Amino acid sequence: MSQLQSALGQEMPTDALRAILRAHPAAAEVYENLHYAHAGLSLASLELSVTTEQAARQELARIAAL
User: Fold this and answer.
1) Are 41 and 47 in contact (CB under 8 A)?
2) From residue 53, how far is each of 7, 14, 41 by CA, in Å?
């Protein structure tokens, strides 16, 4: 993991970075977490982001009802 973090922290051409992140979704998730301040969740599909948020809200509501 530290090697991936180090690699994603290096400067690289935008096109190369995008190609890597498209080819490796797990690396894209790590990149977003490392660079959240400027990347946010811009690499995740909107549908996936909305679905994940809805599932989290449902789970939190279920836990709160216990």
Assistant:
1) no
2) 29, 28, 12
Q: Whose structure tokens read 């690289």? A: 12
Q: Which residue matches tokens 């909107």? A: 46
pLDDT single digits (tens) 14-55: 888 888 888 988 888 888 888 776 655 555 566 666 778 889
Q: Is there a contact between 31 and 57 (Cβ–Cβ < 8 Å)?
A: no
Output the DSSP codes for 1-66: -HHHHHHHHS---HHHHHHHHHH-HHHHHHHHHHTHHHHTTTTS-HHHHHHHHHHHHHHHHHHHT-
